[in-house]
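Reference record
================
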Amino acid sequence: FGKRFINFVIGDRSHQTAEEFWETIKQHKMEKIASDHWKSYQGIVPKEKHLQTKAETFTVEAYNSLFRHFLARMRRKSKCYSRKIEMLR
């Protein structure tokens, strides 16, 4: 199973966000699409292409981690954070 990061959509975990994401990638010729078990994907991604498994999503999770790490508004406190407001100025 080839691991490619094709695109992303910034949003909440709503059905609408899943639809927006699918619209950005559906024109690509993909045999399989791996995702986590987010229920919104089930009604959007065709069943014959959809593979729900955490084992195949580690590449995108690594990208998500880097994305959050370098964008302060999405940064998780467990990776790095400022303890004082003065440090943010």
Q: What stands out?
A: The chain has one domain: 15-88. Residues 58-70 form the longest helix (13 residues). The mean pLDDT is 79.
